[in-house]
């Protein structure tokens, strides 16, 4: 292996290890809480479960081929492997934007005041979870159905001309009309969910600003009060949305650049993979912040460490 390959292996393995462990931990804790501790579960927990599951698949199916390429494995994926890997990655990446938008909209409706016009949605949001997830899966699976028809294993090492090309896979040229229609559908989906996400974020930021102004006025001559759990959760989701928009746009920029680049560059393709894995890697650690389930889990571990510490047995 060359030194550059070693560097890429380190950068590629870090999101796989950190992101996989983080998302798996969050997924396991929420599933445990959902089935065993009904008094702690909330409707928003279903969104967290779905988001962490999508993140795991996105990280694995995007980065594992890049890692194998960095290790020098030349024929890691055949035609079926390319179709399955790329199709799963694209579907889960599309599900990521849909789920993050749903999370942002759900939290905006949750913290909306009782006088808001969105109040009537609060009682119906919990019943809309599973239909929303089903709708997201169907839409994204249909959008990327062309991958099963067009993607094949890469036979030539050097490929020129515009078009999709990964380290092990490449796509056949589509007809111009079909290509334009497919591109239009993806743009409409992205614009729809990004606008929903940004609108919800702006609405939440406005509510937080008004709340801080009122709290500053009320507590100007008293001790500062601690923010409520809803406010903390809203801050976390706003941070999550900001990370998503930044990394999603960065990944789209590099992907379009590589798509229209006449000569394909494996190093740039690996960099694109690292950028695409940044959001699903950071996501679980943002969710861990100020989370009751995580705090309870950490406190229980701390108590176990105190009970089973050597000092306890030495007494």
Report what the structure shows.
The protein is mainly α. It has 11 helices and 2 strands; from the N terminus they run H-H-H-H-H-E-E-H-H-H-H-H-H. A two-stranded antiparallel ribbon has the order 1-2. Helix 1 runs antiparallel to helix 2 (43-70), helix 3 (79-111) runs antiparallel to helix 7 (229-260) and helix 7 (229-260) runs antiparallel to helix 8 (266-276).
Ranges where pLDDT stays below 50 over 5 or more residues in a row are: none
| Number of DSSP helical runs | 11
What is the string of helix and strand elements? HHHHHEEHHHHHH
Q: What assembly state would you assign to the polypeptide chains in this entry?
A: single chain
Rg computed from alpha carbons, rounded to a whole number of angstroms: 23 Å
Distance N terminus to C terminus? 54 Å
The helicity comes to over 70%
What gross morphology would you assign?
A: globular
């Amino acid at each position: 292996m060359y030194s550059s390959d070693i560097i890429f292996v380190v950068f590629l393995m870090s999101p796989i290890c950190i992101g996989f462990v983080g998302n798996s931990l969050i997924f396991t804790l929420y599933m445990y809480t959902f089935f065993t501790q009904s008094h702690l579960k909330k409707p928003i927990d279903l969104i967290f479960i779905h988001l962490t599951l999508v993140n795991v698949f996105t990280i694995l199916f995007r980065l594992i081929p890049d890692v194998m390429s960095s290790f020098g494995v030349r024929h890691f994926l055949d035609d079926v492997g390319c179709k399955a890997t790329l199709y799963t990655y694209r579907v889960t990446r599309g599900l990521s934007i849909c789920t993050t938008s749903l999370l942002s909209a759900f939290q905006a409706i949750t913290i909306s005041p009782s006088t808001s016009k969105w109040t009537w949605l609060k009682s119906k949001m919990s019943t809309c979870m599973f239909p929303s997830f089903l709708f997201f899966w169907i839409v994204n699976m249909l959008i990327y159905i062309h991958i099963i028809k067009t993607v094949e294993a890469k036979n030539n090492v050097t490929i020129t001309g515009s078009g999709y090309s990964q380290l092990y896979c490449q796509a056949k040229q589509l007809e111009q009309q079909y290509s334009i229609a497919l591109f239009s559908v993806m743009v409409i989906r992205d614009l729809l969910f990004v606008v929903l996400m940004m609108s919800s974020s702006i609405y939440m930021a406005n509510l937080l600003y008004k709340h801080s102004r009122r709290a500053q006025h009320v507590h100007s001559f008293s001790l500062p009060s601690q923010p409520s759990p809803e406010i903390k959760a809203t801050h976390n989701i706003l941070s999550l949305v900001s990370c998503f928009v930044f990394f999603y746009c960065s990944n789209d920029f590099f992907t379009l650049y590589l798509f229209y680049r006449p000569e394909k560059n494996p190093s740039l393709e690996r960099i694109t993979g690292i950028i695409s894995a940044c959001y699903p890697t950071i996501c679980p650690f943002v969710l861990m912040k100020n989370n009751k389930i995580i705090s309870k889990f950490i406190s229980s571990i701390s108590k176990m460490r105190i009970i089973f510490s050597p000092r306890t047995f030495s007494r």
